[in-house]
């Protein structure tokens, strides 16, 4: 008899430290304790939500991976419902043991239970293995999500704008200052 060593269950607040390590590359930049506190909040919110699930995969009793499932629209402009499989991650020592497949199966089961005809996920662009895995499961690219800090985008926008637009604010300030100076110098003095 062939028994699978992979089992799935809902995440518990006690899983937060393991999940903070698993998802360290996708969590907000904070110290470990803050990340754990964030995850406890996320786990509790998912447990009480009819449109979210946080699924943990165990391999032979050890936490091996997890995925956050959420019912949403395909995009703010395309209102078709989809189950988003957010950050399906597997610890390196448990890869190629069926854990990732079990996590994605949880996403498909959730979609089927809710009568939703589409499953979406994302994989880091630099992760060839994750992208190949998703492609083997018939998940094709829909869009490319690009992210940068607000400061970086502002500096690039400023650097790429035409010179007249970059200096016009400074020139206006200088013109107004010069006019104020002229008015002060021309004002009659009280004597």
Automatic annotation (TrEMBL):
Keywords assigned: Acyltransferase, Transferase
Limits of the N-acetyltransferase domain: 6-160
Pfam families: Acetyltransf_1
Listed InterPro entries: Acyl_CoA_acyltransferase, Bact_Acetyltransf, GNAT_dom
Superkingdom assignment: Bacteria
A GO term, aspect molecular function: acyltransferase activity, transferring groups other than amino-acyl groups
Protein name per the record: GNAT family N-acetyltransferase
Species of origin: Nocardioides luti
């Amino acid at each position: 008899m062939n028994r699978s060593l992979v089992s799935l269950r809902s995440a518990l607040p006690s899983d937060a430290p393991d999940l903070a390590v698993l998802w360290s590359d996708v969590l907000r930049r904070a110290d470990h304790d803050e990340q754990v506190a964030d995850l406890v909040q996320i786990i509790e919110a998912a447990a009480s939500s009819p449109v979210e699930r946080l699924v943990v995969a165990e391999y032979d009793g050890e936490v091996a991976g997890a995925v956050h499932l959420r019912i949403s629209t395909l995009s703010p402009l395309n209102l078709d419902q989809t189950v988003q499989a957010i950050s399906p991650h597997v610890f390196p020592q448990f890869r190629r043991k069926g854990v990732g497949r079990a996590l994605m199966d949880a996403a498909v089961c959730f979609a089927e239970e809710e009568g939703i005809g589409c499953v979406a996920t994302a994989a880091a662009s630099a992760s060839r293995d994750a992208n190949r895995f998703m492609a083997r499961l018939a998940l094709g690219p829909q869009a490319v999500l690009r992210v940068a800090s607000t400061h970086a985008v502002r500096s690039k926008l400023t650097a790429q704008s035409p010179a007249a637009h970059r200096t016009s604010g400074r020139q206006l300030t200088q013109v107004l200052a010069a006019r104020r100076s002229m008015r002060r110098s021309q004002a009659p003095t009280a004597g």
